[in-house]
């Protein structure tokens, strides 16, 4: 599994949903742009949800990532793994059951993760 030693996956569906709501609420509060949540449960073993959002600048991306990591630690007792913070073009936050990708719009458009992780039309 691709999670860090501190980020164990939860077997409790309520805990997973609480974490997912926390992520979405935090991003909304920080005025994230074009937030998309992709359910992965039963489709991938890496997480139950992947959340993708954009910030308008590297400063906003970095701020959203730091606030989200702090909220996850304070409210869920988990210390998420954060990668990409120094450049803040693309920041990955691995919270175990929920993986969050925060992008600058140009970088998000280039990588197009939504299309890559689309399971439409698959059985």
Automatic annotation (TrEMBL):
Cross-referenced SUPFAM superfamilies: Nucleotidyltransferase
Location in the cell: Cytoplasm
Pfam families per the UniProt record, alphabetical: RsfS (PF02410)
InterPro entries, A to Z: Iojap/RsfS/C7orf30, NT_sf
Coiled coil: none
Superkingdom in the source lineage: Bacteria
Keywords from the UniProt entry: Cytoplasm, Repressor, Translation regulation
UniProt GO cellular component terms: cytoplasm
GO biological process, one term: negative regulation of translation
Function: Functions as a ribosomal silencing factor. Interacts with ribosomal protein uL14 (rplN), blocking formation of intersubunit bridge B8. Prevents association of the 30S and 50S ribosomal subunits and the formation of functional ribosomes, thus repressing translation.
Subunit field text: Interacts with ribosomal protein uL14 (rplN).
Family affiliation: Belongs to the Iojap/RsfS family.
Protein's recorded name: Ribosomal silencing factor RsfS
Originating species: Sphingomonas trueperi
Lineage start: Bacteria, Pseudomonadati, Pseudomonadota, Alphaproteobacteria, Sphingomonadales
């Amino acid at each position: 599994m691709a999670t860090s030693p501190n980020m164990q996956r939860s077997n409790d569906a309520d805990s997973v949903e609480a974490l997912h709501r926390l992520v979405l609420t935090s991003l909304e509060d920080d005025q994230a742009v074009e937030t998309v949540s992709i359910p992965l449960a039963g489709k991938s073993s890496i997480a139950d949800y992947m959340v993708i959002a954009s910030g308008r600048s590297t400063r906003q991306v970095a701020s959203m990532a730091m606030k989200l990591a702090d909220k996850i630690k304070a409210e869920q007792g988990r210390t998420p793994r954060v990668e990409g913070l120094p450049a803040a073009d693309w920041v990955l936050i691995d919270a175990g059951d929920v993986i969050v990708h925060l992008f600058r719009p140009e970088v998000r458009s280039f990588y197009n993760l939504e299309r890559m992780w689309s399971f439409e039309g698959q059985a």
